Amino acid sequence: MAKRERRWLGGKVVAITGGARGIGRTTAQALVRKGCRVAIGDLHLDLAEQTAAELGGGTIALPLDVTDRSSFASFLDAVDRELGPIDVLINNAGIMPVTAFREEADDSIRRQIDINVYGLITGTQLAIERMLPRHTGHIVNVASSAGKAGVPGIATYSGTKHAVVGFTEAIRAELRDSGIEFSCVMPVTVNTALTEGVADTRGVKKVEPEEVADEIVDALEMPRFDVFIPRTLKFTLAAGSLLPRRWREAVARLMGIDKIMTEVPKSARQAYEERAAASRSGADAEKPVEREAA
Questions:
Q1: Which of 21, 50, 176, 279 is deepest in the core (most CB within 10 A)?
Q2: Catalytic residue chosen out of the listed positions 72, 118, 157, 272
Q3: What's the rounded mean pLDDT across residues 44-49?
Q4: Model pTM greater than 0.90?
């Protein structure tokens, strides 16, 4: 088999949602270093503008509410006008409230579905419309290891990330001969504000956002669909799938995965949870949440 060569990313136009901080910011930084022309979209425009200025390299900041289709369309149109046709869309925006499901408010459930699922699906569809006529493009959807296994304490979040994985697998098959490529990013817990107060477990330690950014860049240079972080997660999940469910759940308990979210100190999550609870879309936006995926 012929050895594949890495693709040159210099000059590529990349749009990143939730790019003002966290994984989005770090990924933008990594891509600027590769010579990409980057646009970051965020509900918190002031912070996005500050981030763009700090990253340099011609990075631009644009307003974006992923839960509003017209806002997403305007964001992509602005990227086209200011930087050129979009080569890569990275759907990174997401929120993760931590709460027992039986106590979770309806507003929290709807907000996660709107941001984590609807926003990602909308952005993907709008990007495909722009990429299909050119028969080229790459869409990166940031999911989570929680999209491969249910995690107590973040049941709704786990559900949204399962949706992201399944959705991305389906459209990849549907557009197999279109020239558009897809990647699904599935990290373990990432050391950002999204996981404030969340401790490491036996065998599952947090990764740094730089590690996620490096793997996203690698998946653009050497296209692949499954982007597990760390890469050993692929084999862990594969091995676990061979076990009977009872044994698999016993291993998860032994590793402490069943308690990683249920025993998070509320005081450690307070600042993030308040921002998440205050997040609203459109004209009702008052306190923009840090929208980043993990």
A1: 279
A2: 157
A3: 95
A4: no
Rounded Cα–Cα distance for residues 112 and 92 (Å): 13
163-174 tens-digit pLDDT: 999 999 999 999
121, 93 in Cβ contact below 8 A?
no
Range from 199-208, 227-236, 244-253 that averages highest in pLDDT: 227-236
Q: Is 272 a catalytic residue?
A: no
Give, in order, the Cα–Cα distances in Å from 229 to each of 49, 92, 166, 190: 29, 15, 18, 9
Conformation bin of residue 203: beta by default, left when phi > 0, alpha when psi is -120 to 50 = left
Tokens representing residue 67 in the block: 């839960």
- Measured CA distances, 84 to 12, 90, 217, 249 (Å): 9, 16, 20, 49
Please report which helix (H) or strand (E) contains residue 63, including its range: strand 60-63
Architecture, CATH, for domain 13-284: 3-Layer(aba) Sandwich (3.40)
- In Å, how far are 11, 15, 76, 129, 244 from 42, measured between CA atoms? 22, 11, 12, 22, 43
The Cα 187–Cα 36 span in angstroms is 23
Determine the Cα–Cα distance for residues 202 and 156; give it in Å rounded to an integer. 24
- Give every CB contact of residue 133 below 8 A, 6+ residues apart in sequence: none
Of 161, 208, 279, 230, which is closest to residue 29 (Cα–Cα)? 208
Contact (CB, 8 A) for 177 and 162: no
Closest CA to 108 of 242, 274, 245: 274
Whole-angstrom CA distances from 209 to 16, 89, 155, 225 are: 15, 18, 23, 19
Query: Half-sphere exposure (CA, 13 Å, Cβ side) for 227?
Result: 28
Cβ–Cβ under 8 Å, residues 97 and 112 = yes
CA distances from 88 to 2, 128, 141, 183 (A): 26, 10, 11, 11
Q: What is the pLDDT of residues 185-208, one digit of tens each?
A: 999 878 765 655 555 565 567 789
